[in-house]
């Protein structure tokens, strides 16, 4: 009987002898299968199945995370799934790094010792310049995203001299790494484009979609005196902060440096500059904010475990008009803290407690009507929470970034390690006479 490709398999006559070259092929095939089976058995006996799975996950993660940039360095362990915000984090870090370079130039060229400290023009120049550079990077990479930023360009449209001063700085400020600079979109085309970019920061904010928050120079007084200030960038998705980056050019680069006072006032740049970052559910990190910052691996940071609240270091604003120093002193005393508070400007306070250089940050309201701005808190709030902290307002509510350009649903800020936050909040409420119903 002839076998036919159209016959069902079980009708083929298997008793027919195979041609000899078929026999050789069959023999080779069986030998190969035997060798493969033996290999699989050996591997399975030596390496536990979980390890094989982990290896496969690592391999797929590495392939998915591959970026053709030499400076790219993810903070996630290789065994984890790729971060959904990897490119946002990378762009945000580089954008903050580039803007920080501009602010340092402004300080050294236009502020340091040369002007009356009442002259706010270095702040204006640094603010507009840093905002333009950050928005240019965001616009290049995520053109559909909205932006809530502090500055608008109307003042520059009326002042050609100021506009030109800023443009000269903006067009000359670049990252050292050419591929990183290219990733951010390179130079802005001209000064008109710069003004248009600055004005893109006019989103109303809210609970829907992707919205970036920018404070180009947070802590203007600190910036002017050569003390603490921060370049702040956060990404919110549907009202929740997912990525936060803080460039703190004047904080000590070494995470282990404990807070004493406004460290770094008018010192050189040597050993200073930190880039704090956090991605929701992925932890917080720090790395030196040097020119080639992202070449350095990011180090995970965490809040200091506080076994004895009396030994806490608490920090607060320098400006008495920004937070109630007297209430904060009373709280500190009730907690048994004997060390004086550490006063510093800007969101550098959030970064400092997140890396365990300090422990508690209190920002108790001075004016009942003041609404905190989302760009003053978005990045810092995420960085502290991802480092093991809790951040609430004085009523114990999480900061609500979903209601517009301000934190209209919150009053004040209480940030502390999660394990002791409730205790700190109890004392805050006792001193402020807040009852659960108030
Ligand atoms: N009455 C106030 N209460 C709280 N924060 C304020 C008040 N007035 C201004 N600020 C904000 O404090 C921030 C600086 O905080 P810090 O004291 O921690 O450095 C500034 O961005 C400033 O916002 P703005 O730029 O709108 O004036």
TrEMBL record:
InterPro entries: DPNP (IPR006239), Inositol_monoP_metal-BS (IPR020583), Inositol_monoP_superfamily (IPR051090), Inositol_monophosphatase-like (IPR000760), Inositol_monophosphatase_CS (IPR020550). One of its GO terms (biological process) is phosphatidylinositol phosphate biosynthetic process. PROSITE patterns: IMP_1, IMP_2. Keywords: Hydrolase, Magnesium, Membrane, Metal-binding, Transmembrane, Transmembrane helix. It is an enzyme of class 3 (hydrolase). It catalyses: adenosine 3',5'-bisphosphate + H2O = AMP + phosphate; adenosine 2',5'-bisphosphate + H2O = AMP + phosphate; 3'-phosphoadenylyl sulfate + H2O = adenosine 5'-phosphosulfate + phosphate. Its cofactor is Mg(2+). The chain crosses the membrane at residues 34-56. One of its GO terms (molecular function) is metal ion binding. The keyword Oxidoreductase does not apply. SUPFAM superfamilies: Carbohydrate phosphatase. Mg(2+) binds at residues 150, 215, 217-218, 376. Its EC number is 3.1.3.7. Coiled coil: none annotated. Belongs to the inositol monophosphatase superfamily. This is 3'(2'),5'-bisphosphate nucleotidase. It comes from Drechmeria coniospora (Nematophagous fungus).
């Amino acid at each position: 009987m002839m076998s036919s490709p159209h016959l069902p398999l079980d009708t083929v006559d298997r008793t027919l002898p195979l041609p000899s070259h078929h026999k050789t092929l069959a023999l080779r095939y069986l030998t190969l299968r035997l060798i493969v089976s033996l290999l699989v058995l050996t591997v399975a006996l030596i390496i536990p199945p979980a390890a094989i799975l982990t290896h496969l996950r690592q391999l797929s993660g590495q392939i998915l995370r591959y970026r053709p940039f030499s400076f790219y360095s993810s903070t996630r362990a290789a065994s984890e799934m790729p971060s959904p915000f990897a490119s946002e984090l990378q762009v945000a870090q580089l954008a903050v790094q580039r803007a920080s370079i501009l602010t340092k130039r402004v300080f050294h060229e236009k502020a340091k010792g040369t002007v009356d400290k009442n002259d706010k023009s270095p702040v204006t120049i640094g603010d507009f310049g840093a905002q333009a550079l950050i928005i240019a990077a965001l616009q290049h990479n995520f053109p559909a995203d909205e932006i809530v930023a502090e500055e608008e360009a109307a003042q520059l449209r009326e002042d050609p001299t100021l506009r030109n001063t800023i443009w000269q700085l903006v067009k000359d400020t670049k990252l050292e790494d050419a591929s990183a600079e290219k990733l951010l979109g390179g130079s802005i085309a001209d000064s008109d484009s710069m003004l248009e970019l600055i004005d893109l920061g006019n989103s109303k904010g809210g609970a829907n979609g992707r919205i970036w928050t920018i404070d180009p120079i947070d802590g203007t007084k600190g910036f002017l005196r050569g003390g603490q200030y921060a370049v702040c960038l956060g990404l919110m998705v549907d009202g929740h902060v997912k990525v936060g980056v803080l460039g703190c050019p004047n904080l000590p680069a070494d995470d282990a440096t404990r807070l004493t006072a406004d460290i770094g006032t008018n010192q050189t740049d040597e050993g200073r500059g930190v880039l704090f970052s956090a991605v929701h559910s992925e932890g917080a990190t720090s790395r030196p904010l040097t020119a080639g910052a992202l070449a350095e691996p990011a180090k995970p940071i965490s809040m200091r475990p506080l076994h004895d609240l009396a030994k806490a270091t608490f920090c607060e604003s320098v400006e008495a008009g920004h937070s109630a120093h007297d209430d904060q002193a009373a709280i500190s005393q009730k907690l048994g803290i004997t060390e004086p508070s550490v006063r510093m400007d800007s969101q550098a306070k959030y970064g400092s407690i997140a890396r365990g250089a300090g422990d508690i940050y209190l920002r108790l309201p001075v004016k009942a009507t003041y609404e905190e701005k989302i760009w003053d808190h978005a990045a810092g709030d995420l960085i502290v929470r991802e480092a093991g902290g809790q951040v609430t307002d004085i009523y114990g509510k999480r900061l609500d970034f979903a209601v517009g350009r301000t934190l209209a649903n919150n009053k004040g800020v209480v940030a502390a390690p999660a394990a002791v936050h409730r205790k700190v909040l109890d004392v805050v409420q006792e001193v402020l006479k807040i009852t659960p119903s108030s």
